């Protein structure tokens, strides 16, 4: 498992005549470390079927798996099991639950969990600050940071990564500078690569590229690939071609996203020759562009879409809804952001390219299957910077203004209301475990359910969840 050979480990595990909780925890934890989060849930269900009682270590791994998948259905199911089995919450589990709900798009539930648990360890505070940061709630994040000091919990290195990330996502340059200086001068924390990377991202997003370069030159550690990618992304946003070329020249191990950023930067200048040169370089180096996918959770399934996807069983209905959305949006003055399509094609082709993007197909499916006023949560596997922000904005304007839905868009990039996700590929219809309880309470055990003659109270009610 430690060497990444999970399949071999699983075969050995399956051959074991006796498997105790430690053995199950080892294989589940191995899948988490190797980012095989669907396998985490699959093995966990096998553990329950084998009548092996999970412990706190088990749930710590499974909660992490749910967070990385961004599946709210699985999240509330696992949390419900923890309540049912009366698992004692230590600071690790408390922080994991706060983080899980935030990454599943439910920052409201994350806040309630945070308020209901013991908060005497910095990890719990860090989880809340980071959750608020990735949802773009910078002012809330700074308020939690201040409250942490009032409650005599000292911030650590991770706390400042979270608060700087919050400032970066909302463009709070002065506030970010204040925290960066506070970290060093007041709390005597030496900046690490993660702090520098977030600071470069903050300055770069805001257009302070000269200051970002000065920070890189003054770094006490050698800049790594994350630093140069943050600078490259800023160059793409602000059209700094020469500086972008300098940044990519310092990236030793290239990924497809690096070349895509550089290619898109050339395209934004209508330099089609430069963009083609980058694509040829990708071919020579054997780098392939990762295909963008979006997915939406509905009922007991997760539905995945690619651009111009026609594989879904309800494709015709989805396209009808999307066409209706586009027509009604245009009547209300909506104009597609065709300047974000970085291809040498006509305006009509650019508009068509935007129309059938994976996010909008997922949105159309959400509108098709849900009622007005409901919440639509869309996840995406890639960071595609400016174009995804534009598409998400288009989707939000169409879905929210026309059908009165609340849209939360999840992805690796940040938009106005967005959740950070680790980019997991999700099967077209991942099965969600069914509950045996007849009473739904956000996955928690109903107050009326009894075990061994004792009432198992729903701990969530006291923290503001839907009443039992």
TrEMBL record:
Swiss-Prot/TrEMBL PPR repeat ranges: 20-54, 121-155
MF GO annotations: RNA binding; zinc ion binding
Residue span, DYW domain: 333-385
Keywords assigned by UniProt, alphabetized: Repeat
PROSITE patterns noted in UniProt: PPR
GO terms, biological process: RNA modification
UniProt cross-references to InterPro entries, sorted A to Z: DYW_dom, E_motif, PPR_At4g14850-like_plant, PPR_rpt, TPR-like_helical_dom_sf
NCBIfam families (alphabetical): PPR
Homology family: Belongs to the PPR family. PCMP-H subfamily.
Stated name of the protein: Pentatricopeptide (PPR) repeat protein
Native organism: Trifolium pratense (Red clover)
Taxon lineage: Eukaryota, Viridiplantae, Streptophyta, Embryophyta, Tracheophyta
